[in-house]
Structure formats: structure tokens, C-alpha cells
Amino acid sequence: MKRAARPLLALCCCLLPLAASAGYGERPEVRHFIEQLVARHNFDRTWLAGLFQRLEPRPQVLAAIRRPAERLPWYRYRAIFLTSQRIKAGVAFLRRHAGVLARAQERYGVPAEVIVAILGVETFYGRHQGRHPVLASLATLAFDYPPRSRFFRGELEQFLLLVREEGLDPAAATGSYAGAMGLPQFIASSFRHYAVDFDQDGRRDIWNNPADAIGSIAHYLHRHGWRPGALVAVPAQLQGTAALHHATQHQALPPRQRLAELVRQGITPAEPLPGDARVTLLALAGEQQEEYWLTLHNFYVITRYNHSPLYAMAVYQLGQAIAEEADNRRGKLEP
After folding, report:
1. How far is 25 from 139, CA to CA, in rounded Å?
2. Fewest 10 Å CB contacts: which of 17, 90, 122, 161?
């Protein structure tokens, strides 16, 4: 009996990896999720079951979400996005789509360089939109990443609603490891709430249509409270350490501190601000020493796109660099 058991044990061991990688449709929690979608949104049960049966966990997605770039120190994170190539490509995009950007700025109040910078940080102006199958990525994070499973189950539900509404093939959509899609890298819920058909061709196409991507970003920031003409961030100098307990590094905080109070504690803004202005003191790790910034409401609005202050600062500085380079080139062309 012991000799007979050895081949059986070996066979079982060989089958374990196959069982672990079986389609999601076999798992009880997925079946429950399917039933919820049927009850809430009148999805076809058979269609959903077939869809999930063909899906398997993607280990590369789990590996990627555990090492986000936003964990880098600021000076290394900045070096990824503030490059001459990205600035020059941003100026070219700014010029190529000047009319659409001007229309978006007029309608939503968001400066063209901020819109372009978001596209630059997210996808290098559409060059790198991600190659992960969105459906499989979201399923992996929804059912095999416990720290954020609730969030990603919500996004998986939103994605299935999205593809039904837009008439898309759920298996064909590609994006980031976290399910972000298109030139602006919208997650499914953001697409459903904020994507716009900016060229009025009857489709909201953020994958191939720069006009829709531009309008959608501007609409997103507008809906999150962008204040036209208001400052985003101002460099600051720190004298002493009294104000340091106010500083944030990795958390996006609404601007609630009164500037006058920080000034009394040794903070000096690089340009004048009203004493009653509400700000957040941001400390960023420079290569040689800490950088200090006073961030305002519009900076916080950018963090609604991505909650990392490093992301918002990269967008702000890239946008400033693009605008400055565009002005320099324009000046050289003038007689």
C-alpha cells in the first residue's frame, strides 16, 4: 500500500499548481460576486460565468502593486518624469493639440500645461498605456490582494458596467497593472463618472482620441474643485524646526494650515501669499537636503487624480517646465 501511495501522492502534487491556477469561475467568492452583479445590474449569469472561467490570477500584477514608484524618495521619483525628452515631447503635444487644449481650458478652467503634464506622467503622451489585460488584472487584485480587495472588486464591477455601456470587448481592454486605461489612465469608475466625448463624435474614446483624453482630464479636475487662476504650490524656506511637526511627506492633505501661523514658526514662502491663505507644508527628500513647499488647494485637487504628493509635484513641475520651454521656443520664433 505504501508503494502504491507514492505515485498517487506524486500525481496529487503535480495537480496542485493546476488547481491553483484554475479559472476564477470555480471559486465561491467569485460565484457570489457574479450573483451580486446579476441581482444589481441584470447581467447575464452564463456570460459572466464564462468570462471568469477563462481568467486566471496574474502573479506579475501582484508583484507590481507591491512596489509602486511612489515609495521612492522624491529626488529619484522626480528624475523619472522631469527629463528633457518628456519636456520636449510635452511641448510638441501642447502645440499639436493647441486648439483642443484651449477649448478645454476655457470650458473647465484647467491650464493646458497641467493637462499635458498629467498625460506626460501617466503615459508619456499616450506612448505607454499598459499591456496588462484589464479584466484579468482587476480580478487578480479583487480576489487575490486582500489589502485592497474591496476597492478592486468595486472597480471590477465598474469595469463590467463600462464595457457593457460602451459596447467594448472586456477581454480586449489593456491598461496598467491596476486596471488604469487609456492616455489619461482612468480607472473604470473614473471613466464612467468623468470621461467626456469632447469632440462630439458619439464615443468616449480615451484610448485613441487625444481630444477625449484632454477633455476628460480637464473635466475630472474641474469636478474635483479646480480653481481657475489659483496657485498650485510655492517653494518655501524653513528657519528652525518649530514648523516641522506640520510637515507631510507621503500623505496628501487638504490645505488647512493658516499661512500666517507657519510664518510665525519660521516658514517663508518664495512668493507673496495672503496671510489667511490655507496651505499644507510639504517636505520632499532632495538628493542633498530636504525641499520644502507650501501647497495650496489646486495641488490637493491634483492628488485626487493620484493620491501621492510626489505624483502631484511631478505633474506641477513638469507642467511648469513644458510651459517655460514652449514660451522660450515661441520667443525665438518672434522677430
Report:
1. 11
2. 17
Task: Kindly list the domain boundaries of the chain, sorted by start residue.
Answer: 23-66+131-175, 233-295
How crowded is residue 183: how many other Cβ atoms within 10 Å of its Cβ?
A: 25
CATH 1.10.8.350 fits 23-66+131-175, yes or no: yes
pLDDT in tens, 229-241: 999 999 999 988 8
Query: Which tens digits make up the pLDDT trace of 102-118?
Result: 999 999 999 999 999 99
CB-CB neighbours of 50 under 10 Å: 12
C-alpha cell at 166: 460602451
Exactly one of 113, 122, 155, 291 is catalytic; which is it? Answer: 122
Cβ(145)–Cβ(59) under 8 Å?
no
Q: Does the annotation count 166 as an active-site position?
A: no
pTM over 0.85: yes
Which residues lie below 8 Å from residue 319, measured CB to CB, with a gap of 6+? 111, 113, 114, 116, 117
